[in-house]
């Protein structure tokens, strides 16, 4: 089996702003319908085991570590109002859904990938997000990252080609170059090439000679690495079969066209 893990927060943003560019308006719950359509499209393509992670609240334990870490400030109300309906709709649709509170959606994806990859029945784990944080979860060609926008599928060698380091060093890489989306700046004068070169030479940040970054920046880099390192200990499921889609619940209500597509998939699978 192939396990598909979806960044629900990213998909919600993607559909929200995609609809706005196309329609110049914000259709009521338009982004929610878009995400549901994306999931159905995956089911139509043969996906059987799907899990979706969402940021139920934007803040997490990382906000306590770094004051500038990302928050929900600035999220438009029309978008913010679709977070809860998305989670409710996915659950009613019968899709395994993980709304994260203390952790982030990225932590849920990392945890789910870790749990699924341990199961011998799983042939491959596909993490559907372009977020560079998730590149640290890639393992050989067994756990891969799929960028829906570009169509790229990155295995371990693909991550190395893109960032210049192996997946296990992605937290070190991000600590040095920073991540504007997450709200930490990185270390001065450490661009992508410099970061990759330093990691190739010295390994993880903890092994850098203190004089390479300077004592203050060395400690700051270790803090940023903590921010960039995804948690893998979220207890999301005990058996990967819990991710198998078995059809929507009776309470699920969707657009007629979407319901027709779901009915077709159920008929094909004899659900």
Q: Secondary-structure blueprint of this entry?
A:
Blueprint: E1 2-7, H1 8-23, H2 30-44, E2 49-55, H3 62-65, H4 77-80, H5 83-92, E3 96-100, H6 105-117, E4 124-128, E5 143-147, E6 152-154, H7 156-163, H8 170-177, H9 192-202, H10 210-213, H11 215-228, H12 256-269
Parallel strand pairs: 1-2, 1-4, 2-3, 4-5
Antiparallel strand pairs: 5-6
Helix pairs in contact: 1-2, 2-5, 2-12, 8-9, 8-11
Give structural notes:
The protein has twelve helices and six strands. It has 271 residues and is α/β, with parallel strands linked by helices. The longest helix is centred in the N-terminal third of the chain and has 16 residues, at 8-23.
Largest sheet report: 6 strands, mixed
The secondary-structure class comes to alpha/beta
**Radius of gyration, whole Å:** 20 Å
Low-confidence stretches: none
CATH 4th-level superfamily of the largest domain: 5'-nuclease
* Total DSSP E strands: 6
Distance between the termini: 18 Å
Number of domains: 2
Summarize this, please?
With 271 residues, this protein is α/β, with parallel strands linked by helices. It is built from 12 helices and 6 strands.
Structural features:
271 residues; alpha/beta; DNA polymerase, domain 1; 2 domains; six-stranded mixed sheet
């Amino acid at each position: 089996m192939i396990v598909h893990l979806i960044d629900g927060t990213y998909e919600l943003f993607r559909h929200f702003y995609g609809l706005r560019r196309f329609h110049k308006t914000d259709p009521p719950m338009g982004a929610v319908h878009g995400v549901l359509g994306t999931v159905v499209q995956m089911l139509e393509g043969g996906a059987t085991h799907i899990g979706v992670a969402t940021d139920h609240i934007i803040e997490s334990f990382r906000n306590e570590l770094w004051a500038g870490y990302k928050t929900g400030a600035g999220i438009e109300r029309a978008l913010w109002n679709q977070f809860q309906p998305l989670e409710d709709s996915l659950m009613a649709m019968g899709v395994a859904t993980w709304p994260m509170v203390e952790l982030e959606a990225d932590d849920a994806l990392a945890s789910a990938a870790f749990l699924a990859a341990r199961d011998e029945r799983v042939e491959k784990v596909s993490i559907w997000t372009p977020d560079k944080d998730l590149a640290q979860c890639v393992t050989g060609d067994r756990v891969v990252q799929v960028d829906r926008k570009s169509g790229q599928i990155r295995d371990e060698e693909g991550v190395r080609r893109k960032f210049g380091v192996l997946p296990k060093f992605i937290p070190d890489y991000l600590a040095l170059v920073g991540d504007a989306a997450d709200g930490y700046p990185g270390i001065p004068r450490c661009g992508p090439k410099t970061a990759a070169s330093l990691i190739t030479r010295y390994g993880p940040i903890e092994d850098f000679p203190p004089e390479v970054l300077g004592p203050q920046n060395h400690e700051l880099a270790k803090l940023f690495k903590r921010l960039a390192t995804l948690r893998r200990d979220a207890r999301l499921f005990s058996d990967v079969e819990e991710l198998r889609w078995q059809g929507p619940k009776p309470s699920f209500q969707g657009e007629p066209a979407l319901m027709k597509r779901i009915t077709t998939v159920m008929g094909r699978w004899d659900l």
